[in-house]
Amino acid sequence: xxxxDLELLEFHKIREIxxxxxxxxxxxxLALDLLPLADEEEVDLRLRQSAEARRLLSLSPDINIGExxxxxxxxxxxxxxxxLEPSTLLTIRNTLEAARKLRRQVTNLSDDLPLLTAMAGDLxxxxxxxxxxxxxxxPTGELMDTxxxxxxxxxxxxxxxxxxxxxxxxxxxxxxxxxxxIQEPIITEREGRYVIPIKxxxxxxxxxxxxxxxxxxxxxFIEPWTTLDMGNEMRELVMEEKHEIDRIxxxxxxxxxxxxxxxxxxxxLIAEIDLALAKARYAGEAGAxxxxxxxxxxxxxxxxxxxxGVLRLVEARHPLLAKKAVPLSIEIGREFSALVITGPxxxxxxxxxxxxxxxxxxxxxGLPIPARSESSIPLFDAVxxxxxxxxxxxxxxxxxxxxxxxxxxxxxxxxxxxxVLLDELGTNxxxxxxxxxxxxxxxxxxxxRTMTVxxxxxxxxxxxxxxxxxxxxxALDVDPTTMTxxxxxxxxxxxxxxxxxTASRLGLPEQIITRARxxxxxxxxxxxxxxxxxxxxxxxxxxxxxxxxxxxxEAEQRNKELGTRLRQLEEDRGRIxxxxxxxxxxxxxxxxxxxxxxxxxxxxxxxxxxxEQAKKALADAQGQLDSGVWRSRPTAEAxxxxxxxxxxxxxxxxxxxxxxxPATVLAVHEERGLVEVLVGKAxxxxxxxxxxxxxxxxxxxxxxxxxITSGPGTRTVSLELDLRGKRADEVELALDDYLDSASLANLxxxxxxHGYGTGTVRQIVRDMLASHPLVLSFRPGxxxxxxxxxxxxxx
Length: 795
Known about the structure:
Blueprint: H1 3-8, H2 11-19, H3 25-32, H4 40-59, H5 72-79, H6 86-107, H7 114-121, H8 127-136, H9 149-174, E1 188-190, E2 193-199, E3 208-213, E4 219-224, H10 228-258, H11 260-286, E5 292-294, H12 298-303, E6 311-316, E7 328-332, E8 338-342, H13 349-364, E9 376-378, E10 383-386, H14 399-413, E11 419-422, H15 431-447, E12 451-455, H16 459-467, E13 471-478, E14 485-491, H17 499-505, H18 510-519, H19 522-626, H20 636-646, E15 653-656, E16 661-669, E17 674-679, E18 682-687, E19 691-693, E20 707-709, E21 716-718, E22 720-722, H21 728-744, E23 749-753, H22 760-771, E24 777-780, E25 790-794
Parallel strand pairs: 5-9, 8-12, 8-13, 10-11, 11-12, 22-23
Antiparallel strand pairs: 1-2, 2-4, 3-4, 6-7, 13-14, 15-16, 15-19, 16-17, 17-18, 20-21, 23-25, 24-25
Helix pairs in contact: 2-3, 3-11, 4-11, 5-10, 5-11, 6-7, 6-8, 8-10, 9-10, 17-18, 19-21, 21-22
């Protein structure tokens, strides 16, 4: 773009405002050097960086680049061998630290900020260089003792020598016999040597070197001979310290210079990030957004059938007027390519023109614009402006000549993809010729479909815009009652100049206004009256439209609220149905549980009855067995068995007489006549009479373990019940029958196998065992017994 157009539209002031939001000199210079871009991808990238920066500030309002300085010049000098000062090295160290922190701050938000994260990710962390400088230079910019062992040693010796020297001089100063020759009891320095002030008349009383004389000549500053060697050593140490400091600074400077490319790259990246943050801060201050950039239709533009997109600004504000600006909404390029703006003097025509041009340039420069997010701006190849009074005395150009020269430049350069802004076209010359020239220029730009916005007071241009395809009128409104400008732009109708009303409002005497009005032709007066009437009707229609829009918005809001309420009612209905269904399911479950308990209770009653009958039969049989009829004489073999039973001990293998299976003795309770045995994985407690100690049966003759018979001719009862794979209704019947049989078989402990599964069978088993009259207690199986997949029952 031509620099002249940028100046006419005051783009340099926008750059200065943006520079005020930057944090250091490099990014400030980027802001001041900002220019409109021609590449669509580059413009889009800059705007997306700005949008991400606004998002970053919303996530972390206090984020900043930290203590960063533009150290590129210092680093460049270090690369050429210059030894940098400690303060400069400290600045470099602080900048490296700020770059490291900024990189980590931004990359932690990588999901939301891909562009800024990529920029921050390219920052190079020079941790070793940062540590080296930090280990040598203190925050106040002084070389620390830790900078090198040699420096530490020299400074340690300097402190010792200085203390010895001061002690010796202090003794001289405080000596009673020296009081008369001492001017003041102090120790001072001259030319790097420690001296004491001696009265000039007593100079012969102390031997030493005179280093200085007071202004009055009454005092000599003498270094005594007795401290000369210490002073010399101190001087040597000072020089040695300086040499070591110079060496350390040279080493650090050389290291800095070796990383010139990385450091300079970091500064450039930080400046870019800071510029994006400056755009975001400006956007927050001005209420700005990133507009959509409309890609130009190159084929249509070259064929003359179209131009580079549609310019759409919604509630746009001039960025230099801040909150005083009246919002402007406009659309050019869809139904027409040229807009003729008319209206009263001081009514805001030039401001509207500059707003359109300045926002278009800002968008091309990748800056957010103060407008609504629905705004879109074509990527113009150039924005041309002919605004203001640029009379040149130096070049003997009149105002008219300057404007025509500028318009010639625009005509020779503008393309269908350009934006042309013409203020007060055809003025500063004869009105008839100026009007004809203005119409011809406007038709030229309309013919090549160059997007054009012109302001004028010429009635002929208003008529041209009304009757010519591709042109459109627009008016800056005035209040029909007071005839004062409202600065509101209405597209579709022309506006009146209202010159007499404006002059009267600005203080021109009324008799002059009246005389001028009388001089107007009847047609002119009728046209002004018509325009005023149109303005009134337009404002009435606008008021009606706003009222209808308000009612429509309210109706939409009510519909939205009703829809929300309806959805809420549907959700409540669904929740009530779900809650009711769940309640019914819970009640049905409780009812089924009560039915099972009732059924179990009935079975228990039947079991008790059967048990009592069995016990009675067993007692009768036992009575018969106890009678002498059934007793046999004891044999030697039986006696031997009884003797063996009495010798049972823990760890023995015994034979279960009723189960016909071997078992291992776990414990013997002779006082209660009981023995605790382990059969397979099941633990059982039996009477001593039901086991006998035998030699183990051979494998070929061993009976099948885990079965117990209740006597000759009776059924066999297993030590465990396997319920896996059974249905719930089968589980209760099988378990009840098994417990009856186990009780009749006099089993003291059994194992119920129900498995893991969903836990349903296990729960049924344990619920039933908890209330069964034949069960003494029960517990889950231990690790070696089957775990929670079995339940061990004590009868």
